[in-house]
């Protein structure tokens, strides 16, 4: 039985929460070392690769606090992606596969932080819509081939929005363990599969659930510190779709052989 007073207990809880929210001071250095080790392209705030008939494969780094690169590293990001998102990585192809790893940086470029949106005078709905526009956006689409998006880690406070789609190819998404929010899937005649851990952390939200399409809530991993998940209130979204291919979602580092087996191009 605790001998602390109510005030002391409250103070202890608040201090514990504050410690849980503190981002490690060496996170930026760790990210920099990882980029050097993986020989990743220079990090940018907005990235776009639109190669209709060429394979898109590699490791890329983005982040809301990373300075914009002019001219762009690859193709010019669309004005809509820049306006609606704090950071984005968009990969588009028509006939070739997409297989990319996207590292979302937390501390890189902290000297030029991305300014927070002005919500003065907005009602709650407008504030929510404005904050959703500040998401970190990762999108991959190949019209007639497979797509594999891998986000190994994300510890920011802004929502993570992941979209992957194909008309006839397989779609695989590997999410960071800090992901907490909505998972939506849709296929006409394809197959849907989730890894054991994704299945364990999801709760169906559909009133009339089906195997081909649905929406689930991915609950926060209780073993992660609050600074990695924004205290479980970040509001991430993952949307995957294919007409006739296979859909598969797993968490980063979760049984790599199983992920590779379910990702046709890994």
UniProtKB/TrEMBL annotation:
Residues 1-16, 30-42 have a biased composition (Basic and acidic residues). Residues 46-254 form the DUF7330 domain. It comes from the Eukaryota. InterPro entries: DUF7330. Residues 17-29 have a biased composition (Acidic residues). Residues 1-42 are annotated as: Disordered. This is DUF7330 domain-containing protein. It comes from Malassezia equina.
């Amino acid at each position: 039985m605790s001998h602390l007073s109510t005030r002391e207990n409250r103070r202890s809880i608040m201090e514990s929460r504050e410690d849980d929210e503190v981002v490690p001071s060496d996170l930026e250095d760790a990210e920099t070392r990882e980029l050097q080790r993986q020989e990743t392209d220079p990090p940018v705030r907005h990235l776009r690769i639109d190669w209709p008939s060429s394979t898109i494969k590699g490791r890329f780094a983005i982040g809301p606090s990373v300075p914009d690169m002019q001219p762009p590293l690859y193709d010019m990001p669309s004005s809509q992606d820049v306006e609606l998102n704090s950071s984005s990585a968009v990969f588009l192809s028509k006939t070739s596969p997409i297989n990319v790893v996207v590292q979302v940086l937390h501390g890189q470029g902290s000297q030029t932080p991305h300014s927070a949106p002005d919500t003065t005078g907005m009602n709650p709905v407008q504030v929510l819509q404005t904050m959703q526009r500040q998401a970190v956006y990762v999108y991959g689409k190949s019209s007639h081939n497979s797509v594999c998006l891998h986000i190994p880690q994300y510890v920011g406070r802004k929502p993570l929005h992941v979209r992957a789609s194909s008309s006839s190819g397989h779609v695989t998404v590997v999410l960071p363990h800090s992901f907490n929010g909505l998972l939506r899937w849709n296929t006409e005649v394809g197959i849907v599969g989730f890894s054991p851990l994704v299945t364990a952390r999801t709760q169906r939200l559909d009133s009339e659930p089906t195997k081909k399409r649905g929406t689930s809530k991915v609950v926060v991993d209780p073993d992660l510190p609050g600074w990695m998940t924004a205290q479980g209130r970040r509001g991430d979204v993952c949307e995957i779709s294919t007409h006739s291919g296979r859909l598969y979602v797993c968490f980063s580092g979760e049984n790599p052989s199983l992920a590779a087996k379910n990702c046709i191009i890994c």
